[in-house]
Write a structure and sequence with these properties.
Length: 116
């Protein structure tokens, strides 16, 4: 059974940091490209960051470049998103996604709220 379980969300102050984790099981994690998406209330889901199956290639949305870092540990089947210098506009539900050719899996999401 495929599972992607996000954790690490919560309330942070502007300028603060959070680290999200996504624990994967039920598929061959090291074959999959992994992504973080987010969806704010009333907005469409947007791609935040992407990492290749080996971790050798990463891409970021312009809005988070220089502040967020995506990484993965294939030995632990876990994806991470380090979020620094958080802004109120980063408030959203964050989802991890696993993709390999036509296979596409999603987690349930974790809420991140940035507010003073």
């Amino acid at each position: 059974q495929v599972q992607l379980v996000e954790s690490g969300g919560g309330l942070a102050q502007p300028g603060g940091s959070l680290r999200l984790s996504c624990a994967a099981s039920g598929f061959t994690f090291n074959m999959y490209t992994m992504k973080w998406f987010r969806q704010a209330p009333g907005k469409e889901r947007e791609l935040v960051a992407r990492i290749s199956n080996t971790g050798g290639s990463t891409n970021y949305a312009d809005s988070v470049k220089g502040r967020f870092t995506i990484s993965r540990d294939n030995g632990k089947n876990t994806l991470y998103l380090q979020m620094n210098s958080l802004k109120p506009e980063d408030t959203a539900v964050y989802f991890c996604n696993a993709n390999y050719i036509y296979r596409d899996y999603w987690g349930q999401g974790t809420q991140v709220t940035v507010s003073s």
